[in-house]
Amino acid sequence: MAQKLTLKQIAKDLNVSISTVSKALRDSYEISEETRSKIKDYAKSKNYKPNSIALSLKNQKTKKIGIVIPEIVHHFFATVISGAERVANENGYQVIITVSDESFDKEVVNMEMLANGSIDGFIMSLSKETMDKHDLHHLREVTNQGMPIVMFDRVTNDIACDKIIIDDVAAAHSATDFLMRKGRKNLGLITTVDYVSVGRLRTQGFKQALTERGYECENHQVLKIENADACENEIEKFVVGNNFDGILAVNELFAVTASKALQKHGRSIPDDIAIVAFTDGMLSKYASPTLTTIGQKGEEMGGIAAAKLIERLEKKESDSESYETVIVKTSLIERESTP
Amino acid sequence: MAQKLTLKQIAKDLNVSISTVSKALRDSYEISEETRSKIKDYAKSKNYKPNSIALSLKNQKTKKIGIVIPEIVHHFFATVISGAERVANENGYQVIITVSDESFDKEVVNMEMLANGSIDGFIMSLSKETMDKHDLHHLREVTNQGMPIVMFDRVTNDIACDKIIIDDVAAAHSATDFLMRKGRKNLGLITTVDYVSVGRLRTQGFKQALTERGYECENHQVLKIENADACENEIEKFVVGNNFDGILAVNELFAVTASKALQKHGRSIPDDIAIVAFTDGMLSKYASPTLTTIGQKGEEMGGIAAAKLIERLEKKESDSESYETVIVKTSLIERESTP
DNA sequence: TTGTAAGCGTTATCAG
DNA sequence: CTGATAACGCTTACAA
């Protein structure tokens, strides 16, 4: 069990000073060709790798990015991580993941742990509880220290930072429009409670599309789900008890649940009732019938978030205190659940 | 943008020495009640948090665990991360995630990066390519340095480390048995190529169960999928072209694909043909019909892996060079795809 | 009770 | 061309 090789050890083994070793390995012109290659050969043969912790301390940067998400066992967030990880790696960064479990307290604790020098910046999506309480002191503390944050999906305008979102209003609007163009007139929306920003915005887009076409959007056409784990009965009652010919759902889970409930009651999809869902994940592709979805481009959002963050980390600080909001285009992926 | 607070800064602000501050904050008996509370109050008011990088360097331990997995957008691996992250956090550790994308080279690079002091130990599942080439030098290098590895799911016996697996042979055996007890006589297996350890072992369990009951397992009863991204046609041909009344699939994706192909050809599930799949994920719960599965307990495996690793990290080194293999019990979750 | 100094592994500055 | 020294932030003998 060979001890980890350090500059000191190499210096001792080769009877030179530590700084000579350091310089030789970094190809300094100050070191003679001879010693340089002697040292480099030795280092290579022993597979020397500089200690990244020491470098972090010295350089005051860790080359690590903290990702804070509400959940990891969730297709959308997993794709975001995937995209962020890829771009981070391409730029010599690594990602540290923490999960808030939709809890404000866990979000605070996780961010405090990471902010103590472990990382250079954050990529995050707010927990439900944080959005509900709207307590953002932990985020302010981080930005006040000069540590940049890039938010995605569930964001807030009350923190100075870059944001990566999809245009939820427009996407919901165009999906609703799509259903109406297919001749559907009685539309139902299955969404989340309003404090979840994406749910609220999608609801807004849905309603806008309806009123623009002169439909009134009665309250009973919108179902707001508080707890996704126990939504089955609610959704069944909603879709079966109303005379819809089209459904828009803000995520796959709500959509599949609705689809199954409808089929159980003998309704045919898409003939009797069409379904469009947000989030293009596994369920949509493999449900029966397959679901028409609005792709959320998680991979892309994650990649952009990482790129933005790294860009900010690497440019001379102090300049450009202007933050940007990137809106990632969504696209409708038509499958069997719409005619 | 307040600069990050350090001991040095506190010492200067309060006109004491750095070590006095350090000791006071750690409640050393050496420091007088008065200075101690003065320092602690000040630190608290300014929200001082020790720099974790400096601590890592000093203590030669990072309190970080590296997780190396083949894929992250994959329900099973996501659950493993979730379990590992939870247990790690409970013990004051954080997790750094890297993804090999099933590539040997990426696995090597990722592990080398992390092994340079960034983490205290690894939790990992081998990439397909690594299993295929069976080149394990990067793993040996890590263990030779005295850095522990805990492997899960896709493991090898050629590295001295703890392992967390399910009993794939037994699970496949009992699932096959289950189908036979339901009166099914013509069974098909959809599995992966043999170098993926779990695929090989599950195939073995399947065959064992058949021969024990006196069936011969002809080759055409086993379909080995090389590339999961393009398996649709292969699976369709296999399940439709043979006269099966039962199918065992080594993952959900193969199972759902088979299910849809069969339904397309007018076969009824489970009446004409029953299906059992490994991995209890989203697809199984929401497919039509819902799938009977063998739960793989990813969350539990991740938790055990983290616990084992942390246990090894925190016990006096040198002792106990004996490694353990934990076999996590699986359970059959019966749903609509079996009678 | 407080402070000084060495050390963790690096790099950078400056002296020899 | 090579080496000693300080610094990054923290802990801990040891000195005062």
From TrEMBL, chains A, B:
Ranges for domain HTH lacI-type: 5-59
UniProtKB keywords: DNA-binding, Transcription, Transcription regulation
Coiled coil location: none
UniProt-recorded name of the protein: LacI family transcriptional regulator
Matches recorded under Pfam families: LacI (PF00356), Peripla_BP_3 (PF13377)
GO molecular function, one term: DNA-binding transcription factor activity
Keyword Electron transport: no
Organism from which the protein derives: Nonlabens spongiae
InterPro entries (UniProt xref): HTH_LacI, LacI/GalR-like_sensor, Lambda_DNA-bd_dom_sf, Peripla_BP_I
Top-rank taxon: Bacteria
